[in-house]
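New to this. Comment on this protein:
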Amino acid sequence: MKFKQLFATALLLISPMLVMAQSIIQDKSEEELTRILEEVVVTGTGTEHLLKDTPVQTEVINSKVLRNFSGQSLEDILSMLATSLDFNESDMGSGITMNGLGNSYILIMVDGKRMHGDVGGENDLSLIDPNNIEKIEIVKGASSALYGSDAIAGVINIITKKHDEGLLLENTSRVGSYGDLRQHNGIGFKLGKFQSYTNFQLQHSDGWQNTAVEHTTGKEKPITDSRNKTTNRNTNWQIAQKFTYDVNDNLQFYTEGSLYWKRIYRPSGHHPHYDVKTYDLEYHNSSVAGGGKLKLNKTDYLTLDVDWNRHAYFYNFTDTTLMDGYDPRGNFTHYYPYFPKDKMLQSDQQRTMGALKGVFELPLENRLSAGLEYRYDWLRAPMRVVGGKAKDWTAAAYVQDEFNFLRWLNITAGLRLTKNQKFGWKLTPKISGMLSLGDFRLRATWSQGFKTPTPKELEYLYVRDMNGTYLYMGNEDLKPQTSNYYSVGGEYSWQGFTLNVTGYINDVKDMINLVNVPNYMAPIEYQTQYELKRTRQYKNLESAKTKGIDVSLRYAYKEWAAGLGYSYLDTDANIYDSNHDKMKKVTIDGMAHHKGNVFLTWGHRFSEVYRLGAGIYGRTSSKRYYQSDGDGKGYQIWRLTTNHDFGKSSTTTYRLEAGIDNIFNYVDRTPHGLHLGTTTPGTTIYAQLTIRFAKGKKTNNKFNSNLSNTNEDD
């Protein structure tokens, strides 16, 4: 079915639902309607807008939804509540995709600042404590001039809770199946103009094995006694600290930092037929940031943010192992011996960033945003990049103007000028518009994106044993990627009912992807030293296009809320096949044509001391396609949650949450070494207890008032 035909079909299917909703909703309270329509968002333009008035289509997972859902992790939250996102979790990270484009095209931010982590691979979303999330805003495509190279697919902005009580003590403990343990502790206090918040989180899982079958080639006998797990035992902890100081009503400074440690414990030993590791994986992250905000008058302000972060990745040996490595004097040695408890650095990535931004109200209902940014990346990876080290820097300037001279029309246009150390200058325009027609809103966006190859993509050279020897190679001949993103969407809101339909095309030129190449393209020393099963190299695809439709329905009525989402995706990518001297069609890894979710929640306060909430959530996905190692199976997962609020103390609250995940016990038993649709172990249960003590009136923070709208009794 052609894209235009599918778009028209979706509109026809939605129309009867719209008419039905109008007929059954008659007595919606004005208070509830106002709350739904006046959610404040900031991500699309970098400035405050009511959700219904933002010119850039923004998907919001708000505080009420988060409290009802009781997510185990950020991956858990996004996979169940956002249809356009997919995950393929592994020991290396979260493996996230948005509308067909993967990790390196998605900008993940925390409170508007870039999340630190692997600067060219997988993001470890366990760096983000789910118990400290106020809401999540999702903007698709390179729709804003404010965001740079990592935002070709879109932006996920995690907005954290604002703690400004006089004294705050909170503890959340969660236990679940397979040794799952989650711990959150927060300590906050405010003394005059000075404010502090300390956040600690601990996460642990014993892991699980969905199958003991190991993938083999057709010539080998099936292996049915594998010790490898679907998800390995793992532990991580993080401590984060933030201080703020309000000099006066117009000037605020902040400083913050964090330390993070993670270890993934893998089955160890030796086996003649399948891959059993002799080392665990260990990660060390750290970050320091500071900055401030200066209000020039009631409408204009300046912000400055500077941060440094580090992401280091090690092998932690559990058995004597001979590997290529460096002796204590720094000399490279083949088959250097590593002993238990030895560590071997795989990569040390450090990034320094600075950002200056100003927002100014202009005559004729214009609001101007302008800024400067600088980013410096430094990578040391003795065993993974040519020469052992790599670096890169990027500078950018942007300007964006929001035109609101007509009440029913908003136009937001911007330009971003980027200068990269290796690839020079690039100017990318963006323009979005919204037309308001009573309860209807029409939005359209066209934007260009620009993304340079990462140091890893340029200079990677790494051997991995994975049921055979795989060689991964960088490519110094890579070209920068550019994109054109087009979207058109309609929104209808009436008495608690909201319908969104958005069609989009993301046309990426010179898209970079790992593709299979002949083994003879490997360096000669690797051909002679290893018996290569497969060689993969980063290549520019000649063309790559993702296109689809996202549909969202939401309805709130008194104590009930319901919603469903559907996402259709198709991709079209071509690459030059040097073996056969012709263009070859390839799959963008991880694509699924159809994804959907649904939820129904209810809550009721029975007395001053007890409130009950319950919800059922469903998530489905069709088959996910990959270039090699098999496709991921389609799946359907259902979840039941309950939450119980106790007590009527003005200072202390108690909340018990319990639920069942994967009610119908679906398990993907695909052999190890092939792609999975989902890693779930089957039906699991959880229970979570939160005790929160807060003394002192919570103020309406004049610097972040738009980000603190939680209603604890929703």
Q: What stands out?
A: The two ends are 43 Å apart (CA to CA). Residues 469 and 532 are 5 Å apart (CA to CA). The chain has six helices and 41 strands. The chain has one domain: 3-40+164-707.
